[in-house]
Amino acid sequence: MSGTFTKSMARNIFYGGAVFFFLLFVALTFDTTRALPKYDNRGAITPEVALGKRIWEENDCIGCHTLLGEGAYFAPELGNVYTRYGNSKEAIMAFIKSRPKEGIPGRRSMPQFNFSDEQLNALAEFLKYTSEIDTAGWPPNVQG
Amino acid sequence: MQYQSQAVAKPYFIAAIVLFVAQILFGLVMGLQYVWGDFLFPEIPFNVARMVHTNTLIVWLLFGFMGAAYYLVPEEAETELHAPWLARLMFWVFLVAAGLTVAGYLLVPYATLAELTMNDLLPTMGREFLEQPTIIKIGIVIVALAFLFNIGMTVLKGRKTVVSLVLLLGLLGLAVFFLFAFYVPDNLVLDKYYWWWVVHLWVEGVWELILGAILAFVLIKITGVDREVIEKWLYVIIAMTLITGIIGTGHHYYWIGTPHYWQWWGSIFSAMEPIPFFMMTVYAFNMVNRRRRNHPNKPATLWALGTAVMAFLGAGVWGFLHTLAPINYYTHGTQITAAHGHMAFYGAYVMIVLTIISYAMPILRGRTAANSNKSQVLEMWSFWLMTVSMVFITLFLTGAGILQAYLQRVSDAPQSFMVVQDQIALFYWLRELAGVVFLIGLVVYIASFFVGSSDPEATVEAQV
Questions:
Q1: Which candidate, A83, A102, A92, places its Cα nearest to that of A142?
Q2: DSSP string of B126-141?
Protein backbone atom coordinates (compact mmCIF):
# COMPACT_ATOMS: atom_id res chain seq x y z
CA MET A 1 0.00 0.00 0.00
CA SER A 2 1.23 3.46 -0.85
CA GLY A 3 2.80 5.84 1.64
CA THR A 4 -0.12 8.27 1.64
CA PHE A 5 -2.43 5.66 3.10
CA THR A 6 -1.36 5.57 6.72
CA LYS A 7 -1.99 3.07 9.47
CA SER A 8 -4.16 5.49 11.39
CA MET A 9 -6.38 5.91 8.33
CA ALA A 10 -6.72 2.15 8.14
CA ARG A 11 -7.52 2.03 11.84
CA ASN A 12 -10.23 4.68 11.45
CA ILE A 13 -11.83 2.79 8.58
CA PHE A 14 -11.88 -0.30 10.77
CA TYR A 15 -13.44 1.29 13.82
CA GLY A 16 -15.72 3.58 11.83
CA GLY A 17 -16.84 0.80 9.51
CA ALA A 18 -17.41 -1.69 12.30
CA VAL A 19 -19.46 0.73 14.39
CA PHE A 20 -21.46 2.08 11.44
CA PHE A 21 -22.39 -1.31 10.04
CA PHE A 22 -23.14 -2.79 13.42
CA LEU A 23 -25.51 0.10 14.12
CA LEU A 24 -27.09 -0.40 10.71
CA PHE A 25 -27.54 -4.07 11.57
CA VAL A 26 -29.18 -3.12 14.87
CA ALA A 27 -31.50 -0.73 13.02
CA LEU A 28 -32.46 -3.46 10.55
CA THR A 29 -33.01 -5.83 13.47
CA PHE A 30 -35.29 -3.25 15.06
CA ASP A 31 -37.29 -2.96 11.87
CA THR A 32 -37.41 -6.74 11.49
CA THR A 33 -38.68 -7.10 15.02
CA ARG A 34 -41.54 -4.69 14.28
CA ALA A 35 -42.42 -6.40 11.01
CA LEU A 36 -42.08 -9.96 12.28
CA PRO A 37 -45.71 -10.53 13.43
CA LYS A 38 -46.73 -10.37 9.76
CA TYR A 39 -44.42 -13.28 8.88
CA ASP A 40 -43.70 -15.50 11.85
CA ASN A 41 -47.12 -17.06 12.54
CA ARG A 42 -46.83 -16.15 16.22
CA GLY A 43 -50.59 -16.26 16.66
CA ALA A 44 -50.37 -20.04 16.32
CA ILE A 45 -47.90 -20.52 19.18
CA THR A 46 -50.03 -22.43 21.68
CA PRO A 47 -48.70 -24.23 24.79
CA GLU A 48 -48.71 -27.42 22.67
CA VAL A 49 -46.54 -25.78 20.03
CA ALA A 50 -44.12 -24.55 22.70
CA LEU A 51 -44.00 -28.04 24.21
CA GLY A 52 -43.46 -29.50 20.74
CA LYS A 53 -40.53 -27.16 20.16
CA ARG A 54 -39.00 -28.26 23.47
CA ILE A 55 -39.39 -31.93 22.51
CA TRP A 56 -37.87 -31.11 19.12
CA GLU A 57 -34.87 -29.60 20.91
CA GLU A 58 -34.45 -32.18 23.67
CA ASN A 59 -34.23 -35.00 21.14
CA ASP A 60 -31.78 -33.18 18.89
CA CYS A 61 -33.98 -33.56 15.82
CA ILE A 62 -31.83 -30.87 14.16
CA GLY A 63 -28.90 -33.33 14.32
CA CYS A 64 -30.32 -35.21 11.30
CA HIS A 65 -33.06 -33.02 9.80
CA THR A 66 -33.20 -29.51 8.46
CA LEU A 67 -35.93 -27.16 9.64
CA LEU A 68 -36.49 -24.25 7.25
CA GLY A 69 -33.28 -25.41 5.59
CA GLU A 70 -31.10 -25.24 8.70
CA GLY A 71 -29.68 -28.23 10.52
CA ALA A 72 -28.15 -31.47 9.29
CA TYR A 73 -28.56 -32.84 5.78
CA PHE A 74 -28.95 -36.51 6.67
CA ALA A 75 -32.74 -36.65 6.77
CA PRO A 76 -35.62 -34.80 5.08
CA GLU A 77 -36.57 -31.14 5.53
CA LEU A 78 -39.33 -30.87 8.13
CA GLY A 79 -40.38 -27.22 7.80
CA ASN A 80 -42.97 -28.30 5.25
CA VAL A 81 -43.51 -31.91 6.33
CA TYR A 82 -47.06 -31.04 7.41
CA THR A 83 -47.97 -30.07 3.85
CA ARG A 84 -45.96 -32.93 2.36
CA TYR A 85 -48.01 -35.34 4.48
CA GLY A 86 -51.26 -33.93 3.13
CA ASN A 87 -51.87 -31.47 5.97
CA SER A 88 -52.22 -34.37 8.35
CA LYS A 89 -50.97 -34.36 11.92
CA GLU A 90 -52.02 -37.99 12.20
CA ALA A 91 -49.68 -39.01 9.37
CA ILE A 92 -46.73 -37.30 11.10
CA MET A 93 -47.55 -38.95 14.41
CA ALA A 94 -47.99 -42.35 12.79
CA PHE A 95 -44.62 -42.08 11.05
CA ILE A 96 -42.68 -41.19 14.21
CA LYS A 97 -44.49 -43.89 16.17
CA SER A 98 -43.78 -46.65 13.67
CA ARG A 99 -39.96 -46.38 13.52
CA PRO A 100 -38.37 -49.80 14.16
CA LYS A 101 -36.28 -49.94 17.31
CA GLU A 102 -33.32 -51.67 15.65
CA GLY A 103 -33.44 -49.61 12.47
CA ILE A 104 -33.77 -50.87 8.90
CA PRO A 105 -30.95 -53.12 7.60
CA GLY A 106 -28.57 -51.12 5.43
CA ARG A 107 -30.78 -48.01 5.42
CA ARG A 108 -30.95 -44.74 7.29
CA SER A 109 -33.70 -44.87 9.87
CA MET A 110 -35.09 -42.54 12.48
CA PRO A 111 -34.66 -43.88 16.04
CA GLN A 112 -37.68 -45.03 18.03
CA PHE A 113 -38.21 -42.34 20.67
CA ASN A 114 -41.13 -43.96 22.54
CA PHE A 115 -43.05 -40.69 22.72
CA SER A 116 -46.36 -40.50 24.57
CA ASP A 117 -49.45 -39.50 22.62
CA GLU A 118 -49.30 -36.06 24.22
CA GLN A 119 -45.68 -35.61 23.09
CA LEU A 120 -46.47 -36.83 19.58
CA ASN A 121 -49.36 -34.42 19.34
CA ALA A 122 -47.19 -31.52 20.55
CA LEU A 123 -44.49 -32.32 17.98
CA ALA A 124 -47.04 -32.46 15.19
CA GLU A 125 -48.54 -29.16 16.36
CA PHE A 126 -45.07 -27.61 16.31
CA LEU A 127 -44.43 -28.85 12.77
CA LYS A 128 -47.85 -27.58 11.65
CA TYR A 129 -47.08 -24.14 13.10
CA THR A 130 -43.69 -24.16 11.37
CA SER A 131 -45.22 -25.03 8.02
CA GLU A 132 -47.39 -21.91 8.23
CA ILE A 133 -44.51 -19.44 8.71
CA ASP A 134 -44.10 -17.07 5.73
CA THR A 135 -40.80 -18.29 4.27
CA ALA A 136 -40.90 -16.24 1.06
CA GLY A 137 -41.98 -19.26 -0.95
CA TRP A 138 -39.24 -21.61 0.20
CA PRO A 139 -38.84 -24.57 -0.33
CA PRO A 140 -39.36 -24.59 -4.10
CA ASN A 141 -41.68 -27.60 -3.98
CA VAL A 142 -43.29 -29.97 -1.56
CA GLN A 143 -40.27 -32.33 -1.49
CA GLY A 144 -38.43 -29.77 0.67
CA MET B 1 10.63 -18.81 24.31
CA GLN B 2 11.02 -15.20 25.41
CA TYR B 3 8.70 -15.36 28.41
CA GLN B 4 8.34 -18.28 30.80
CA SER B 5 4.56 -17.95 31.03
CA GLN B 6 4.15 -18.58 27.31
CA ALA B 7 4.59 -22.23 28.25
CA VAL B 8 0.96 -22.43 29.39
CA ALA B 9 0.03 -22.52 25.70
CA LYS B 10 1.48 -26.01 25.28
CA PRO B 11 -1.28 -28.08 26.94
CA TYR B 12 -3.87 -26.05 25.04
CA PHE B 13 -2.24 -27.00 21.74
CA ILE B 14 -1.95 -30.66 22.74
CA ALA B 15 -5.62 -30.80 23.76
CA ALA B 16 -6.54 -29.16 20.47
CA ILE B 17 -4.77 -31.86 18.47
CA VAL B 18 -6.29 -34.69 20.53
CA LEU B 19 -9.80 -33.34 19.97
CA PHE B 20 -8.96 -32.84 16.30
CA VAL B 21 -8.38 -36.59 16.05
CA ALA B 22 -11.74 -37.30 17.72
CA GLN B 23 -13.42 -34.87 15.33
CA ILE B 24 -12.04 -36.61 12.26
CA LEU B 25 -12.86 -40.12 13.52
CA PHE B 26 -16.48 -39.17 14.10
CA GLY B 27 -16.54 -37.40 10.75
CA LEU B 28 -15.59 -40.69 9.13
CA VAL B 29 -18.38 -42.46 11.06
CA MET B 30 -20.90 -39.93 9.75
CA GLY B 31 -19.55 -40.17 6.23
CA LEU B 32 -20.03 -43.92 6.35
CA GLN B 33 -23.54 -43.58 7.75
CA TYR B 34 -24.44 -41.55 4.67
CA VAL B 35 -23.95 -44.63 2.52
CA TRP B 36 -24.35 -47.43 5.08
CA GLY B 37 -27.47 -46.18 6.79
CA ASP B 38 -27.52 -48.46 9.84
CA PHE B 39 -23.78 -48.38 10.60
CA LEU B 40 -23.50 -48.32 14.42
CA PHE B 41 -27.28 -47.89 14.70
CA PRO B 42 -28.89 -47.55 17.21
CA GLU B 43 -25.79 -47.25 19.43
CA ILE B 44 -24.38 -44.13 17.76
CA PRO B 45 -27.11 -42.53 15.68
CA PHE B 46 -26.05 -39.97 13.07
CA ASN B 47 -27.06 -36.99 15.20
CA VAL B 48 -24.81 -38.14 18.05
CA ALA B 49 -21.82 -38.59 15.75
CA ARG B 50 -22.57 -35.17 14.29
CA MET B 51 -22.68 -33.48 17.68
CA VAL B 52 -19.31 -35.00 18.53
CA HIS B 53 -17.92 -34.00 15.11
CA THR B 54 -19.03 -30.37 15.26
CA ASN B 55 -18.64 -29.76 18.99
CA THR B 56 -15.12 -31.19 19.18
CA LEU B 57 -14.26 -29.00 16.18
CA ILE B 58 -15.50 -25.86 17.91
CA VAL B 59 -13.85 -26.75 21.20
CA TRP B 60 -10.49 -27.64 19.69
CA LEU B 61 -10.47 -24.41 17.71
CA LEU B 62 -11.23 -22.56 20.96
CA PHE B 63 -8.36 -24.44 22.62
CA GLY B 64 -6.22 -23.35 19.69
CA PHE B 65 -7.31 -19.71 19.93
CA MET B 66 -6.66 -19.65 23.67
CA GLY B 67 -3.29 -21.32 23.26
CA ALA B 68 -2.46 -18.81 20.54
CA ALA B 69 -3.42 -15.93 22.80
CA TYR B 70 -1.39 -17.26 25.73
CA TYR B 71 1.58 -17.71 23.45
CA LEU B 72 1.54 -14.48 21.50
CA VAL B 73 0.19 -11.92 23.96
CA PRO B 74 3.17 -12.04 26.38
CA GLU B 75 5.51 -11.64 23.41
CA GLU B 76 3.49 -8.77 21.97
CA ALA B 77 2.99 -7.09 25.35
CA GLU B 78 6.62 -7.78 26.27
CA THR B 79 5.68 -8.98 29.72
CA GLU B 80 4.82 -12.19 31.54
CA LEU B 81 1.23 -13.38 31.51
CA HIS B 82 -0.84 -11.80 34.29
CA ALA B 83 -1.79 -15.12 35.97
CA PRO B 84 -0.29 -18.29 34.52
CA TRP B 85 -1.92 -20.37 37.28
CA LEU B 86 -5.36 -19.19 36.14
CA ALA B 87 -4.56 -20.23 32.58
CA ARG B 88 -3.50 -23.69 33.81
CA LEU B 89 -6.61 -24.03 35.97
CA MET B 90 -8.93 -22.97 33.16
CA PHE B 91 -7.27 -25.47 30.87
CA TRP B 92 -8.39 -28.31 33.12
CA VAL B 93 -11.85 -26.84 33.66
CA PHE B 94 -12.35 -26.55 29.91
CA LEU B 95 -10.93 -29.98 29.16
CA VAL B 96 -13.09 -31.69 31.79
CA ALA B 97 -16.17 -29.82 30.53
CA ALA B 98 -15.42 -30.91 26.96
CA GLY B 99 -14.79 -34.51 28.03
CA LEU B 100 -18.00 -34.68 30.06
CA THR B 101 -20.00 -33.24 27.19
CA VAL B 102 -18.70 -35.75 24.66
CA ALA B 103 -19.19 -38.59 27.15
CA GLY B 104 -22.73 -37.38 27.76
CA TYR B 105 -23.51 -37.38 24.03
CA LEU B 106 -22.13 -40.89 23.59
CA LEU B 107 -23.34 -42.62 26.75
CA VAL B 108 -26.94 -41.56 27.20
CA PRO B 109 -29.76 -40.57 24.86
CA TYR B 110 -29.82 -36.82 24.29
CA ALA B 111 -33.22 -36.46 25.99
CA THR B 112 -31.80 -38.16 29.08
CA LEU B 113 -28.82 -35.81 29.02
CA ALA B 114 -31.26 -32.89 28.91
CA GLU B 115 -33.11 -34.33 31.89
CA LEU B 116 -29.95 -35.08 33.90
CA THR B 117 -28.58 -31.57 33.38
CA MET B 118 -31.95 -29.99 34.19
CA ASN B 119 -32.43 -28.35 30.83
CA ASP B 120 -35.95 -27.35 31.96
CA LEU B 121 -34.54 -24.72 34.34
CA LEU B 122 -32.99 -22.76 31.48
CA PRO B 123 -33.60 -24.57 28.18
CA THR B 124 -30.74 -24.01 25.76
CA MET B 125 -30.15 -27.49 24.34
CA GLY B 126 -30.94 -28.98 20.97
CA ARG B 127 -29.90 -26.20 18.63
CA GLU B 128 -27.32 -26.88 15.95
CA PHE B 129 -23.73 -26.45 17.23
CA LEU B 130 -25.08 -25.22 20.59
CA GLU B 131 -26.17 -28.67 21.79
CA GLN B 132 -24.11 -28.52 25.01
CA PRO B 133 -26.06 -28.82 28.27
CA THR B 134 -26.85 -25.45 29.85
CA ILE B 135 -24.47 -26.07 32.75
CA ILE B 136 -21.65 -26.63 30.25
CA LYS B 137 -22.54 -23.40 28.47
CA ILE B 138 -22.29 -21.58 31.79
CA GLY B 139 -18.88 -23.24 32.26
CA ILE B 140 -17.80 -22.00 28.84
CA VAL B 141 -18.76 -18.45 29.84
CA ILE B 142 -16.74 -18.74 33.06
CA VAL B 143 -13.69 -20.05 31.20
CA ALA B 144 -14.05 -17.29 28.61
CA LEU B 145 -14.29 -14.58 31.27
CA ALA B 146 -11.26 -15.87 33.19
CA PHE B 147 -9.35 -16.11 29.94
CA LEU B 148 -10.31 -12.59 28.82
CA PHE B 149 -9.40 -11.21 32.22
CA ASN B 150 -6.00 -12.88 32.06
CA ILE B 151 -5.25 -11.74 28.52
CA GLY B 152 -6.75 -8.30 29.09
CA MET B 153 -4.65 -7.65 32.20
CA THR B 154 -1.52 -8.78 30.38
CA VAL B 155 -2.18 -6.38 27.51
CA LEU B 156 -3.01 -3.56 29.92
CA LYS B 157 0.23 -3.82 31.86
CA GLY B 158 2.44 -4.22 28.79
CA ARG B 159 3.04 -2.92 25.27
CA LYS B 160 -0.20 -2.47 23.35
CA THR B 161 0.25 -3.61 19.78
CA VAL B 162 -2.35 -3.71 17.04
CA VAL B 163 -2.00 -7.49 16.91
CA SER B 164 -2.91 -7.97 20.54
CA LEU B 165 -5.68 -5.35 20.47
CA VAL B 166 -7.32 -6.96 17.44
CA LEU B 167 -6.97 -10.38 19.03
CA LEU B 168 -8.51 -9.09 22.24
CA LEU B 169 -11.36 -7.47 20.34
CA GLY B 170 -12.06 -10.72 18.52
CA LEU B 171 -11.98 -12.74 21.73
CA LEU B 172 -14.23 -10.22 23.46
CA GLY B 173 -16.72 -10.46 20.59
CA LEU B 174 -16.53 -14.24 20.78
CA ALA B 175 -17.54 -14.15 24.45
CA VAL B 176 -20.24 -11.48 24.02
CA PHE B 177 -21.99 -13.09 21.05
CA PHE B 178 -21.91 -16.50 22.75
CA LEU B 179 -24.39 -15.05 25.26
CA PHE B 180 -27.11 -15.29 22.59
CA ALA B 181 -26.80 -19.07 23.05
CA PHE B 182 -28.89 -18.56 26.20
CA TYR B 183 -31.78 -16.96 24.34
CA VAL B 184 -34.16 -19.66 23.10
CA PRO B 185 -37.65 -18.22 22.57
CA ASP B 186 -40.70 -20.35 21.67
CA ASN B 187 -41.03 -18.29 18.49
CA LEU B 188 -38.98 -20.30 15.96
CA VAL B 189 -38.27 -17.29 13.74
CA LEU B 190 -36.89 -15.21 16.60
CA ASP B 191 -34.97 -18.27 17.80
CA LYS B 192 -33.30 -18.67 14.42
CA TYR B 193 -32.75 -14.93 14.00
CA TYR B 194 -30.65 -14.68 17.14
CA TRP B 195 -29.06 -18.13 16.80
CA TRP B 196 -27.20 -16.63 13.87
CA TRP B 197 -25.86 -13.89 16.15
CA VAL B 198 -23.76 -16.61 17.69
CA VAL B 199 -22.99 -18.66 14.61
CA HIS B 200 -22.61 -16.11 11.83
CA LEU B 201 -21.20 -13.27 13.91
CA TRP B 202 -18.66 -15.77 15.18
CA VAL B 203 -17.41 -17.37 12.01
CA GLU B 204 -17.97 -14.52 9.57
CA GLY B 205 -17.27 -11.81 12.13
CA VAL B 206 -15.21 -11.87 15.28
CA TRP B 207 -13.38 -15.13 14.58
CA GLU B 208 -11.93 -13.49 11.48
CA LEU B 209 -10.39 -10.86 13.77
CA ILE B 210 -8.74 -13.67 15.71
CA LEU B 211 -7.61 -15.27 12.45
CA GLY B 212 -6.23 -11.95 11.22
CA ALA B 213 -4.34 -11.27 14.45
CA ILE B 214 -2.75 -14.73 14.63
CA LEU B 215 -1.78 -14.60 10.96
CA ALA B 216 -0.28 -11.12 11.40
CA PHE B 217 1.76 -12.32 14.40
CA VAL B 218 3.16 -15.31 12.53
CA LEU B 219 3.90 -13.24 9.41
CA ILE B 220 5.78 -10.66 11.47
CA LYS B 221 7.85 -13.44 13.03
CA ILE B 222 8.65 -15.50 9.96
CA THR B 223 9.13 -12.75 7.38
CA GLY B 224 10.71 -10.00 9.47
CA VAL B 225 8.66 -7.48 7.49
CA ASP B 226 8.12 -4.18 9.29
CA ARG B 227 5.29 -4.44 11.81
CA GLU B 228 3.82 -1.12 10.58
CA VAL B 229 3.17 -2.57 7.14
CA ILE B 230 1.58 -5.75 8.44
CA GLU B 231 -0.59 -3.93 10.95
CA LYS B 232 -1.91 -1.59 8.27
CA TRP B 233 -2.94 -4.56 6.16
CA LEU B 234 -4.51 -6.18 9.19
CA TYR B 235 -6.70 -3.12 9.83
CA VAL B 236 -7.84 -2.92 6.23
CA ILE B 237 -8.65 -6.63 6.04
CA ILE B 238 -10.65 -6.78 9.24
CA ALA B 239 -12.38 -3.51 8.33
CA MET B 240 -13.61 -5.15 5.12
CA THR B 241 -14.55 -8.27 7.08
CA LEU B 242 -16.91 -6.38 9.37
CA ILE B 243 -18.18 -3.94 6.74
CA THR B 244 -19.33 -6.86 4.56
CA GLY B 245 -19.86 -9.54 7.16
CA ILE B 246 -22.15 -7.90 9.69
CA ILE B 247 -24.95 -7.06 7.25
CA GLY B 248 -23.90 -10.24 5.41
CA THR B 249 -25.69 -12.06 8.25
CA GLY B 250 -28.72 -11.31 6.09
CA HIS B 251 -27.86 -14.24 3.79
CA HIS B 252 -29.25 -16.45 6.55
CA TYR B 253 -32.49 -14.48 6.73
CA TYR B 254 -33.91 -15.32 3.30
CA TRP B 255 -36.22 -18.24 4.13
CA ILE B 256 -36.73 -18.38 7.88
CA GLY B 257 -39.78 -16.15 8.23
CA THR B 258 -38.08 -12.75 8.27
CA PRO B 259 -39.06 -9.75 6.10
CA HIS B 260 -38.22 -10.38 2.45
CA TYR B 261 -35.97 -7.31 2.13
CA TRP B 262 -33.26 -9.39 3.70
CA GLN B 263 -32.82 -11.06 0.29
CA TRP B 264 -31.40 -7.74 -0.94
CA TRP B 265 -29.32 -6.81 2.09
CA GLY B 266 -27.99 -10.34 2.46
CA SER B 267 -27.18 -10.86 -1.22
CA ILE B 268 -25.43 -7.55 -1.74
CA PHE B 269 -23.31 -7.53 1.40
CA SER B 270 -22.45 -11.21 1.53
CA ALA B 271 -21.45 -11.09 -2.15
CA MET B 272 -18.66 -8.79 -0.96
CA GLU B 273 -17.53 -11.12 1.81
CA PRO B 274 -14.85 -12.73 -0.42
CA ILE B 275 -13.06 -9.36 -0.68
CA PRO B 276 -11.30 -9.47 2.71
CA PHE B 277 -10.30 -13.09 2.08
CA PHE B 278 -8.87 -12.18 -1.30
CA MET B 279 -6.96 -9.33 0.30
CA MET B 280 -5.65 -11.74 2.92
CA THR B 281 -4.24 -14.01 0.21
CA VAL B 282 -2.58 -11.13 -1.61
CA TYR B 283 -1.16 -9.85 1.65
CA ALA B 284 0.18 -13.19 2.89
CA PHE B 285 2.05 -13.83 -0.38
CA ASN B 286 3.22 -10.23 -0.52
CA MET B 287 4.69 -10.35 2.95
CA VAL B 288 6.42 -13.67 2.33
CA ASN B 289 7.84 -12.40 -0.97
CA ARG B 290 9.12 -9.24 0.73
CA ARG B 291 10.63 -11.18 3.61
CA ARG B 292 13.77 -9.81 5.17
CA ARG B 293 14.96 -13.17 6.33
CA ASN B 294 14.52 -16.85 5.72
CA HIS B 295 12.97 -18.46 8.74
CA PRO B 296 14.12 -22.03 9.32
CA ASN B 297 10.55 -23.16 10.12
CA LYS B 298 9.30 -23.88 6.60
CA PRO B 299 6.03 -25.61 7.54
CA ALA B 300 4.89 -22.55 9.50
CA THR B 301 5.24 -20.43 6.35
CA LEU B 302 3.42 -23.09 4.36
CA TRP B 303 0.49 -23.18 6.79
CA ALA B 304 0.34 -19.37 6.86
CA LEU B 305 0.12 -19.15 3.06
CA GLY B 306 -2.18 -22.16 2.98
CA THR B 307 -4.68 -20.70 5.42
CA ALA B 308 -4.95 -17.52 3.36
CA VAL B 309 -5.54 -19.41 0.10
CA MET B 310 -7.89 -22.03 1.51
CA ALA B 311 -9.90 -19.48 3.50
CA PHE B 312 -10.38 -17.52 0.29
CA LEU B 313 -11.47 -20.62 -1.60
CA GLY B 314 -13.62 -22.14 1.14
CA ALA B 315 -15.16 -19.09 2.77
CA GLY B 316 -14.86 -16.69 -0.16
CA VAL B 317 -15.45 -18.62 -3.38
CA TRP B 318 -17.57 -21.48 -2.01
CA GLY B 319 -19.53 -19.01 0.07
CA PHE B 320 -20.21 -16.81 -2.92
CA LEU B 321 -21.36 -19.82 -4.96
CA HIS B 322 -24.64 -20.04 -3.06
CA THR B 323 -24.99 -16.71 -1.29
CA LEU B 324 -27.19 -14.87 -3.79
CA ALA B 325 -30.84 -15.28 -2.85
CA PRO B 326 -32.09 -16.59 -6.24
CA ILE B 327 -29.44 -19.32 -6.17
CA ASN B 328 -29.76 -20.00 -2.47
CA TYR B 329 -33.45 -20.64 -3.06
CA TYR B 330 -32.38 -23.94 -4.64
CA THR B 331 -29.25 -24.74 -2.67
CA HIS B 332 -30.35 -23.80 0.87
CA GLY B 333 -29.82 -26.74 3.21
CA THR B 334 -28.27 -29.07 0.62
CA GLN B 335 -24.83 -30.66 0.36
CA ILE B 336 -23.66 -27.36 -1.19
CA THR B 337 -23.88 -25.90 2.30
CA ALA B 338 -21.92 -28.87 3.66
CA ALA B 339 -19.25 -28.43 0.97
CA HIS B 340 -18.82 -24.75 1.84
CA GLY B 341 -18.81 -25.47 5.57
CA HIS B 342 -16.05 -28.04 5.29
CA MET B 343 -13.61 -26.04 3.24
CA ALA B 344 -14.31 -22.75 4.99
CA PHE B 345 -13.75 -24.15 8.46
CA TYR B 346 -10.67 -26.04 7.38
CA GLY B 347 -9.17 -23.14 5.46
CA ALA B 348 -9.92 -20.30 7.82
CA TYR B 349 -9.83 -21.84 11.27
CA VAL B 350 -8.25 -25.29 11.30
CA MET B 351 -5.32 -24.03 9.26
CA ILE B 352 -4.76 -20.86 11.29
CA VAL B 353 -4.61 -22.92 14.49
CA LEU B 354 -2.20 -25.34 12.80
CA THR B 355 -0.19 -22.30 11.67
CA ILE B 356 0.35 -21.01 15.18
CA ILE B 357 0.96 -24.53 16.50
CA SER B 358 3.51 -25.06 13.76
CA TYR B 359 5.25 -21.82 14.64
CA ALA B 360 5.06 -22.04 18.43
CA MET B 361 5.28 -25.73 19.24
CA PRO B 362 8.96 -26.24 18.32
CA ILE B 363 9.85 -23.29 20.54
CA LEU B 364 7.60 -24.53 23.36
CA ARG B 365 9.36 -27.90 23.11
CA GLY B 366 12.77 -26.37 23.58
CA ARG B 367 13.94 -25.66 20.03
CA THR B 368 15.30 -22.22 19.19
CA ALA B 369 13.11 -21.70 16.16
CA ALA B 370 12.33 -24.85 14.23
CA ASN B 371 12.13 -28.63 14.21
CA SER B 372 14.62 -30.95 12.53
CA ASN B 373 14.50 -31.31 8.77
CA LYS B 374 13.00 -34.78 9.04
CA SER B 375 10.12 -33.54 11.17
CA GLN B 376 9.51 -30.57 8.88
CA VAL B 377 9.33 -32.74 5.79
CA LEU B 378 6.75 -34.93 7.45
CA GLU B 379 4.71 -31.94 8.59
CA MET B 380 4.68 -30.56 5.06
CA TRP B 381 3.51 -33.93 3.76
CA SER B 382 0.66 -33.76 6.23
CA PHE B 383 -0.17 -30.26 5.00
CA TRP B 384 -0.56 -31.49 1.44
CA LEU B 385 -2.39 -34.69 2.34
CA MET B 386 -4.96 -32.91 4.50
CA THR B 387 -5.35 -29.89 2.25
CA VAL B 388 -5.67 -31.79 -1.02
CA SER B 389 -8.08 -34.31 0.50
CA MET B 390 -10.16 -31.43 1.85
CA VAL B 391 -10.30 -29.97 -1.64
CA PHE B 392 -11.64 -33.30 -2.87
CA ILE B 393 -14.13 -33.63 0.00
CA THR B 394 -15.41 -30.21 -1.01
CA LEU B 395 -15.58 -31.05 -4.71
CA PHE B 396 -17.43 -34.34 -4.08
CA LEU B 397 -19.92 -32.68 -1.75
CA THR B 398 -20.41 -29.93 -4.33
CA GLY B 399 -21.15 -32.56 -6.98
CA ALA B 400 -23.59 -34.24 -4.60
CA GLY B 401 -25.17 -30.88 -3.82
CA ILE B 402 -25.67 -29.84 -7.45
CA LEU B 403 -27.35 -33.14 -8.24
CA GLN B 404 -29.42 -33.00 -5.09
CA ALA B 405 -30.65 -29.47 -5.79
CA TYR B 406 -31.49 -30.43 -9.37
CA LEU B 407 -33.26 -33.74 -8.70
CA GLN B 408 -35.15 -32.57 -5.64
CA ARG B 409 -35.88 -28.95 -6.43
CA VAL B 410 -35.24 -27.83 -10.00
CA SER B 411 -36.33 -30.65 -12.29
CA ASP B 412 -39.86 -30.92 -13.69
CA ALA B 413 -40.52 -34.03 -11.63
CA PRO B 414 -39.01 -33.33 -8.19
CA GLN B 415 -38.14 -36.49 -6.29
CA SER B 416 -38.26 -37.10 -2.57
CA PHE B 417 -35.27 -36.57 -0.30
CA MET B 418 -34.37 -40.24 0.26
CA VAL B 419 -34.85 -41.22 -3.37
CA VAL B 420 -32.42 -38.46 -4.32
CA GLN B 421 -29.95 -39.50 -1.62
CA ASP B 422 -29.75 -43.00 -3.11
CA GLN B 423 -28.92 -41.57 -6.51
CA ILE B 424 -26.02 -39.47 -5.30
CA ALA B 425 -24.46 -42.18 -3.12
CA LEU B 426 -21.41 -42.44 -5.39
CA PHE B 427 -20.37 -38.93 -4.36
CA TYR B 428 -20.73 -39.85 -0.71
CA TRP B 429 -18.47 -42.88 -1.22
CA LEU B 430 -15.86 -40.70 -2.88
CA ARG B 431 -16.12 -38.16 -0.08
CA GLU B 432 -15.54 -40.92 2.47
CA LEU B 433 -12.47 -42.06 0.54
CA ALA B 434 -11.11 -38.52 0.58
CA GLY B 435 -11.88 -38.47 4.30
CA VAL B 436 -9.69 -41.53 4.83
CA VAL B 437 -6.83 -39.73 3.07
CA PHE B 438 -7.43 -36.78 5.38
CA LEU B 439 -7.09 -39.13 8.37
CA ILE B 440 -3.82 -40.46 6.94
CA GLY B 441 -2.67 -36.84 6.67
CA LEU B 442 -3.59 -36.30 10.29
CA VAL B 443 -1.63 -39.40 11.37
CA VAL B 444 1.40 -38.10 9.45
CA TYR B 445 0.90 -34.71 11.14
CA ILE B 446 0.98 -36.27 14.58
CA ALA B 447 3.96 -38.42 13.61
CA SER B 448 5.85 -35.23 12.73
CA PHE B 449 5.92 -34.35 16.44
CA PHE B 450 7.74 -37.57 17.29
CA VAL B 451 10.09 -37.99 14.34
CA GLY B 452 13.56 -36.50 14.28
CA SER B 453 13.30 -35.17 17.83
CA SER B 454 16.92 -36.01 18.51
CA ASP B 455 18.15 -34.64 15.17
CA PRO B 456 19.68 -31.16 15.11
CA GLU B 457 17.50 -28.18 14.35
CA ALA B 458 17.04 -27.24 10.71
CA THR B 459 18.96 -24.14 9.75
CA VAL B 460 18.41 -21.59 7.04
CA GLU B 461 21.71 -22.37 5.34
CA ALA B 462 20.83 -26.01 5.01
CA GLN B 463 17.68 -25.12 3.13
CA VAL B 464 18.69 -22.36 0.76
A1: A83
A2: SSTT--S-HHHHHHHH
A42-144: which CATH topology? Cytochrome Bc1 Complex; Chain D, domain 2 (1.10.760)
Domain boundaries, chain A: 1-38, 42-144
CB pairs under 8 A between A and B: 231
Query: CA quadruple B352, B358, B360, B365: dihedral positive or negative?
Result: positive
A72, B334: Cβ pair inside 8 Å? no
Residues B389 and B435: their CA atoms lie apart, in Å, by 7
Scored b (16 or more CB within 10 A) or e, B250-285 reads bbbbbbbbbbbebbebbbbbbbbbbbbbbbbbebbe
Q: Do A70 and B256 touch (CB under 8 A)?
A: yes
Q: Which residue of A has its CA nearest to B250?
A: A25
pLDDT digit string (tens) for B308-335? 999 999 999 999 999 999 999 999 999 9
Q: Which of B115, B242, B330 is facing A21, going by the closest CB pair?
A: B242
- Give the DSSP letter string of B180-232: GGG---SSHHHHHHHHHHHHHHIIIIIHHHHHHHHHHHHHHHHH---HHHHHH
**ipTM attached to this prediction:** 0.97
Among chain A residues, CA nearest to B131: A60
Please tell me which of the candidates A7, A57, A73 has its beta carbon nearest to residue B127.
Answer: A57
The per-residue pLDDT for range B247-278, each reduced to its tens digit, is 999 999 999 999 999 999 999 999 999 999 99
**Best of A13, A15, A74 to mutate (most B CBs within 10 Å, chain B):** A74
Q: Which of A7, A13, A59 sits opposite B231 (nearest CB)?
A: A7
Q: What is the pLDDT of residues A63-114, one digit of tens each?
A: 999 999 999 999 999 999 999 999 999 999 999 999 999 999 999 999 999 9
- The whole-angstrom distance between A131's CA and the closest CA on chain B is 10
